[in-house]
Design a protein that fits this description.
The protein is mostly helical and 186 residues long. The chain has 7 helices and no strands.
Amino acid sequence: MSNRKFWPNILTGLRFALIPLLMVLLSLEQTTWIAFWAWFVFAFAAFTDWLDGYLARKFDCETVIGKLMDPLADKLLVTAALLMLIPMGRIAAWVCLLVISREIFITGVRGLAASKNKVVAADNLGKIKANFQYYGIGFLIFPVGLLPIPYQFEFAIVLIWISIVLSYWSAAQYMYNLRDIFIEES
């Protein structure tokens, strides 16, 4: 296997490594520069989500570990960012709970599927949901007043709500597609 085939998993590992840095930056007083660097770290980590999938498909090197770790890295990135935004007053805790509880549920479903030797990769609806989450969180992190974006936080919350609707729709699809596993378990 050539070295380029390892890049998708390396990028997923990088996303895991960027999460503590993001948390530190979001825990500091949010000056324009700190907020910009926090946004940059988040945006770069989100970009690696797209890039690792693109490279895995391009080099035909999708792996079981990649299919399991990539969504986990995405969920941890989103969860960490949302949790850090609560004390900043940028998002309500109960909204974060809606996002996080769905993600934990789907992780459990994926675990159950894996125990039945079924690997559940992210579907297109889940990828669209992730983009809405990333953009919404990105707008919540981005420094206020740096760009002429009126109602920046309100716009971000609309994006988050769209991602919530898509995420629960996606969860229903996962449940339907894996219904045979649940029938076996009952």
